[in-house]
Amino acid sequence: MVLSYVTPYIRHIVVIGLAAVLFAILSREPPKGAHDEQATNFQEHQRLFTEQELAQYDGREGSKGLYLVILGYVYDVQKGVKHYGPGEAYNMFVGHDASRSFISGDFEEYSPELSDVSSLTDSELKSIVKWKSFYDENYTYKGKLIGRYFDERGELTEYHKVVLKRVARAEAEEAKPRQEFPSCNVEWKQETGTKVWCSSRSGDGVERGWVGKPRRYAKQEDKSPYCVCVPDGTESDALVPFENCNASSESCYVKEE
Ligand code: HEM
């Protein structure tokens, strides 16, 4: 009697046990097929496109999708079809690289030169890189376009490296403390050493109504103090007259440090 209750009970335990073992075996490693699929997806996101392939993603009827390119990086912008779809304001950016239009606002007719950003300033290049970050944050990255920015192995081209160097230069320039006063004219001669002086065009070369006096600009965090022209009457701890030079002189000879 008791046995007749126990037997189905044991049978259940055995069945559950076997199921657990089977589950453990199956879940230890993903089936080969699934693993392959993951690898394919990964590669797809790192895909290299030729210009011909990418042209098939211009969003027109029968096209393969809506892919935008910036500095050779490719993004799926289907969710932004109201901006990028055929006939929409920013359709210029899809199906090809028109990086320069991000600055020039040239959205009318595409030509391959629109991928050339060499005529832009360092700071404009920095703005394009900011646009690229916008796409990283808001859209799906799909791969790289072989051409001006990436070679057929997906490596940065020399052209691209120069662009990045110029962007780094713009960042460094912007990180510099803002200089309130124009820098002095500087001249170095072996016989006399370094001469600094002020004129109404010294520093950035911009004409101004005052000449000013040379001062050593020595902000604490600055390891290399330099010379700025300050209008008469300017006083600051960071702006000191040069050694052995009259505070009212318009030029000074500077001792090398
Ligand atoms: C160089 C100039 C310009 C560039 C490169 C540019 C680029 C863009 C891009 C790429 C988008 C889509 C952003 C997204 O994916 O969500 C956008 C959206 C937009 N732009 Fe421009 N744009 C420029 C000038 C202008 C000007 C001058 C105006 C206004 C007169 C304007 C008004 C708008 C508006 C209203 C949106 C839609 C915002 C939204 O719906 O979220 N843009 N712009």
Automatic annotation (TrEMBL):
Family statement drawn from the similarity comment of this UniProt entry: Belongs to the cytochrome b5 family. MAPR subfamily.
Pfam families from the UniProt entry: Cyt-b5 (PF00173)
Protein name (record): Cytochrome b5 heme-binding domain-containing protein
SUPFAM superfamilies recorded: Cytochrome b5-like heme/steroid binding domain (SSF55856)
UniProt keyword annotation of Transmembrane helix present: yes
Cytochrome b5 heme-binding domain: residues covered: 49-146
Transmembrane segments: 6-26
Taxonomic superkingdom: Eukaryota
Organism: Aedes aegypti (Yellowfever mosquito)
Keywords tagged on the record: Membrane, Transmembrane, Transmembrane helix
GO CC aspect terms: endomembrane system; membrane
InterPro entries to which the protein is assigned, alphabetical: Cyt_B5-like_heme/steroid-bd, Cyt_B5-like_heme/steroid_sf, MAPR/NEUFC/NENF-like
